[in-house]
């Protein structure tokens, strides 16, 4: 195999002396490496509860089989993926903010009207006070 040839090239001097032992060492190294990798994968599965996540993913896939519209999938273009997710949210947020702005503007208009009415009432009372003051003098 190609990987064995690379291994032989790295340990050429040793291979020339004992080719069978080199092959045995290579086989043992590969088997230990495979076992170590399998062990690491199992450890990652156990730590991340991947079995549970995979089963819940399978359940989601089963539930989605009857759906008419396709499920969302990333397009591979981050800008488009973010846009497809964020634009509806931002449009909804913008309409909410516009509603809140209209409400505040209406509230401010009512407050401004009441302030003007209060000023008119103050001006009327000042005229009344002046008229009574002049009548008293």
From TrEMBL:
One of its GO terms (biological process) is cell division. It is found in: Chromosome, Centromere, Kinetochore; Nucleus. The lineage of its organism: Eukaryota, Metazoa, Chordata, Craniata, Vertebrata. Keywords: Cell cycle, Cell division, Centromere, Chromosome, Kinetochore, Mitosis, Nucleus. InterPro entries: PMF1/Nnf1. Signal peptide: none annotated. It holds the Pfam family Nnf1. It comes from the Eukaryota. It comes from Leptocoma aspasia. GO terms for cellular component: MIS12/MIND type complex; nucleus. This is PMF1 factor.
């Amino acid at each position: 195999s190609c990987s064995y040839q690379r291994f032989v090239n790295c340990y050429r001097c040793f291979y020339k002396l004992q080719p069978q032992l080199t092959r045995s060492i290579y086989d043992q190294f590969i088997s230990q490496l495979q076992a170590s990798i399998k062990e690491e994968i199992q450890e990652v599965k156990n730590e991340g509860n991947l079995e549970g996540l995979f089963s819940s993913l399978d359940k989601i896939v089963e539930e989605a089989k009857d759906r008419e519209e396709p499920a969302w999938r990333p397009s591979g273009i981050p800008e488009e993926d973010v846009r497809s997710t964020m634009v509806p949210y931002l449009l909804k947020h913008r309409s909410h903010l516009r509603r809140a702005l209209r409400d505040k503007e209406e509230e401010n208009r009512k407050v401004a009207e009441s302030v003007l009415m209060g000023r008119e009432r103050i001006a009327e009372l000042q005229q009344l006070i002046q008229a009574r003051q002049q009548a008293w003098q």
